[in-house]
């Protein structure tokens, strides 16, 4: 026995008597320690208060525009338009949608 831990004698136990610390044991925290950790966590800015990344927002808006263009292209292909006509119409609609997007952004910035 070492520091009151372990067996008095190892005879008949099929062990060598070596005692290890239990790594699974988690000591109880005092309320003071818990409060300090809680204060640290609350002092950090939360994710909700962060501003969104402008590059990600621009990418999402471009993806929305391209999605609308793909839908428009598919409907024109189903109606039997030629590829040249489809390309010109898609470019016109792309310009129109990007201009609308820019107008919306200008309104938001002012």
From TrEMBL:
InterPro entries: CWC21, mRNA_splic_Cwf21_dom
One of the record's GO cellular component terms: spliceosomal complex
Subcellular location: Nucleus
SMART domains linked to this entry: cwf21
Alphabetical UniProt keywords: mRNA processing, mRNA splicing, Nucleus, Spliceosome
Short name of any one Pfam family annotated for the protein: cwf21
Record's keyword annotation contains Nucleus: yes
Record bears the keyword Nucleus: yes
Name of the protein described by the UniProt record: CWF21 domain-containing protein
CDD domains cross-referenced by the UniProt entry: cwf21_CWC21-like
Any one of the GO BP annotations: RNA splicing
Main location: nucleus
Record domain CWF21: where: 57-102
Stated family: Belongs to the CWC21 family.
């Amino acid at each position: 026995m070492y520091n009151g831990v372990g067996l008095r004698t190892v005879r008949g136990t099929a062990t060598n008597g070596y005692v290890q610390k239990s790594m699974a044991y988690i000591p109880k925290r005092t309320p003071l320690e818990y409060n300090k950790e809680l204060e640290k966590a609350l002092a950090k800015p939360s994710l909700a208060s962060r501003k969104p990344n402008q590059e990600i927002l621009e990418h999402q808006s471009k993806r929305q525009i391209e999605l609308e263009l793909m839908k428009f292209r598919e409907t024109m292909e189903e109606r039997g338009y030629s590829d040249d006509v489809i390309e010109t119409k898609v470019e016109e609609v792309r310009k129109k949608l990007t201009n609308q997007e820019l107008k919306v952004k200008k309104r938001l910035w002012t």
